[in-house]
Design a protein that fits this description.
By secondary structure, the protein is of the alpha/beta class. Helix content is 42%, strand content 14%. Bound molecules: 3-methyl-2-oxobutanoic acid (KIV).
Length: 271
């Protein structure tokens, strides 16, 4: 029997030392396939700003766009937990605005939780959103919405001062009540310390094998993102190559008159 992944599953998985598998999804069809394949958590990531919209970073994405994609993903998923990124500037201006935007995302998309990038600077907003009965997942390390502050997409927490700061922020996020923390592009040794320190699960992306779960951008792991891939991406299939070959076949058969055949055509005869 299929098992629904709920908010309680995060803690249960950590206690049982069972890993959590998370992938991004941005549309109904992909969400349905990933759900049928047994994925635990579908993240409607603001990475859609890059892999769907073609922007250089995630900053242009709006709350309305997140809701649009989250609604489609939710319809495709029966068992997966639906997590939605709060986009840049949707939780920074004021706590009130943060709660309103998180509320809109959950109310309009029927998703299960929101994810928020950052530590101390957004702690008040995170606490207020949790107080409004909306589960929150934290996100530390390389937080892509801060790309201009970092000066690029760079590994974070490499020196001991930076690393300690990330550990401290993780502890405060846990105290604030987040149900899990995504750790992006941090040394595996640091991710291991955080994972061992917290009672909530860590979900790694470029954070090594000791996290309680892993997440990847679906386009990257399927080879749909072109030739460049960050070091932490493993390509589990080259769907990009398959897609090009299928489309090449389609074009050839149209030109050669091999498609469509009678099998794909309607007739006026009553048969
Ligand atoms: O937006 C996203 O896809 C993410 C993952 C990279 C964790 O936040």
């Amino acid at each position: 029997m299929d098992q629904k992944f709920t908010i309680n599953s995060f803690g249960q998985r950590k206690a049982a030392r069972r890993k959590i598998a998370m992938l991004t999804a941005y549309d109904y069809s992909t969400a349905r396939l990933l759900d049928e394949a047994g994925i635990d958590v579908l993240l409607v990531g603001d990475s859609l700003g890059m892999v769907v919209q073609g922007n250089e970073n995630t900053l242009p994405v709006t709350v309305d766009e997140m809701i649009y994609h989250a609604k489609a993903v939710k319809k495709g998923a029966k068992n997966a937990f639906i997590l939605v990124d709060m986009p840049f500037l949707s939780y920074h201006v004021s706590v009130e605005e943060a709660v309103r935007n998180a509320g809109r995302i959950i109310k309009e998309s029927d998703a299960n939780a929101v994810k928020i990038e950052g530590g101390d600077k957004v702690l008040e907003a995170i606490s207020a959103i949790i107080a409004a009965q909306i589960p929150v997942v934290g996100h530390l390390g390389l937080t892509p919405q801060s790309v201009h502050v970092f000066g690029g997409f760079k590994v974070q927490g490499k020196n001991s001062g930076q690393a300690q700061k990330i550990v401290d922020q993780a502890k405060r996020l846990e105290q604030a009540g987040v149900c899990a923390i995504v750790l992006e592009c941090v040394p595996w040794e640091l991710a291991r310390v955080i994972t061992d320190t917290l009672t909530i699960p860590t979900i790694g992306i470029g954070a090594g094998r000791y996290c309680d779960g892993q997440v990847l951008v679906i386009n990257d792991m399927l080879g749909l993102s072109g030739d460049f891939a960050p070091k932490f991406v493993k390509r589990f299939a080259d769907v990009g190559k398959m897609l090009k070959s299928a489309v090449g076949g389609y074009i050839r058969e149209i030109n050669d008159g091999d498609f469509p055949t009678e099998q794909h055509s309607f007739t006026s005869k009553n048969d």
